Amino acid sequence: MRSAWRLGLFFLVSCELIGGIEQKVQQGEPTTEEPPAGQAGGTSTEPGRRPPPRPPGEAAPRDGRMLTFAARRIRFGKHNLDGTRNPEAWRKLGFDIDGRRTRVEPFSSDPPGSGHCIPAGEGATPPGVEDGEDGIDNAFGAQVFPLLNSLVPSALGFENDISEDITLGSMPTLLFVMDDVNDGPDDPYVNVAIYTSATFLGQPARRWDGEDSFQVARSSVIESSLSSPRAIYVGGYLKGHTYVSGSIHARRSPPVFMPIAASTAPLVFQATSSTLMIELDEEHRNVRRATLSLVITPHELEASMRELIELYFCDNEVLKNFALLQLPTLHKTPDLFLEGDQFQDPSGMRPCDALSMAVDLELLPILPLTTVFKGTPLPPPCPGPAP
Questions:
Q1: CA triplet 335, 312, 300: central angle to 5 degrees?
Q2: What is the rounded distance in angstroms from the CA atom of residue 125 to the CA atom of residue 105?
Q3: How far apart are CA 165 and CA 287, in angstroms?
Q4: Separation CA 319–CA 315 (nearest Å)
Q5: For residues 8 and 361, is the Cβ–Cβ distance under 8 A?
Q6: How far apart are CA 95 and CA 29, in angstroms?
Q7: What is the pLDDT of residues 220-255, one digit of tens each?
Q8: CA torsion 23→29→34→35, rounded to 10°?
Q9: Where does residue 157 fall: left (phi above 0), alpha (psi -120 to 50 degrees), or beta otherwise?
Q10: Are 183 and 340 in contact (CB under 8 A)?
Q11: According to the model, what pLDDT value does residue 52 have?
């Protein structure tokens, strides 16, 4: 079985050092998240699955707790969180971004003005804009990930391959540090920093019992300092023991990281919008569920997928070229409209120009982070030519 650490599509919202300035994102404007009245589209304008709104109170730092978690499993839409196969699992990943519960039928019968953008691209079909359960928007899980999954056959399945390598420690994972969390169900100000773990020879086996100690990859921080993470959400909140990074309609997002391997710098692409939600238990010791949702243009996604294919299929020219030929299909999968208030076209007459995208993560508690790895990482899968 080919090592799945080379398939680490960990869609990580991050802030990156650009021109020497650390860009931090605060997406916490209060919002009711209710769709405008009178906009039809799909079958209903009643909002479906969405993060809870910001609680009342001053959004300011307090003397709260620090919680640290690591991702053991990441789901893209072909397996349930328990690892069982389910080709329709994508329907449960993400949020109802556009406030409409879209189905296939309206696009074959409804006139313009239905409140949903038109499927884009020659050969695009209505399933490209079909919603999942409870109005969930996840065009990536419905259309893009099945294509990627078909290129990499595996006895365990693509997602389970990744989880197995993360569990064993042969693949880096994502580390989440929630800072300034109070003990109650609501907190109007919580920050979350996200790191990538270091993977190296001789590292301890991962037990996933709450006592694992991870070292942080240098690419996750600025100047080898844990206090300067490249990936951070500032000014999120806790509502009903659920952390939310901000509004699902915020028109800004830091770069999105996709770690590929311990020895490879993460891929970076820019999403238009992103939301991280982490559901904690009442004691704030364990995570019940974590979801990362993105809005991204097909051009942004194609650029990152192209680089991913070049890296992963570096030793198979035939398969690499075949995979690259599939990239134009990304432009037939958009389900959202960038200029709309809720990423949707109220006129129902303009083409869709952005994709919804979501992954779920199984986060488990680990020991607090204390060390940035400064040794030699594992060698790359396809070393370049000798100088």
A1: 30
A2: 11
A3: 21
A4: 9
A5: no
A6: 18
A7: 899 999 999 988 888 899 999 999 999 999 887 766
A8: -50
A9: left
A10: no
A11: 96
51-60 pLDDT per residue, tens: 999 999 988 8
Q: Which helix (H) or strand (E) holds 103?
A: none
168 contacts 206 by C-beta, under 8 angstroms: yes
Cα gap 291→22, rounded to integer Å: 25
- Give me 31's structure tokens: 């919002």
- DSSP classification of residue 312: H
For residues 182 and 248, give the distance between their C-alpha atoms in angstroms, rounded to a whole number.
23
Structure tokens at 99: 């406030």
Q: Are 266 and 231 in contact (CB under 8 A)?
A: no
| pLDDT given at position 158 | 66
Of 128, 90, 77, nearest to 330 (Cα)? 128
Label residue 387 exposed, middle or buried (CB < 10 Å: 0-12, 13-18, 19+).
Answer: exposed
* pLDDT tens string 190-206: 999 999 888 877 778 89
Residue 205 — φ and ψ, nearest 5°? -65, 145
**Helix (H/G/I), strand (E/B), else coil: 45:** coil
Token pair in block for residue 90:
């994508």
Distance CA 299, CA 338 (A): 13
Predicted confidence at residue 23, as pLDDT, reads: 36
Residue 241 tokens, joined = 């023991």
pLDDT in tens, 111-139: 445 578 888 766 555 545 688 999 999 99
Q: Once rounded to an integer, what is the mean pLDDT over residues 143-148?
A: 81
Q: Can you list the positions of beta strands (E) in the chain?
A: 12-13, 17-18, 21-22, 65-75, 174-181, 187-196, 221-222, 225-229, 231-239, 242-244, 255-258, 267-270, 273-280, 287-296, 355-365
| H-helix or E-strand spanning residue 324 | helix 317-325
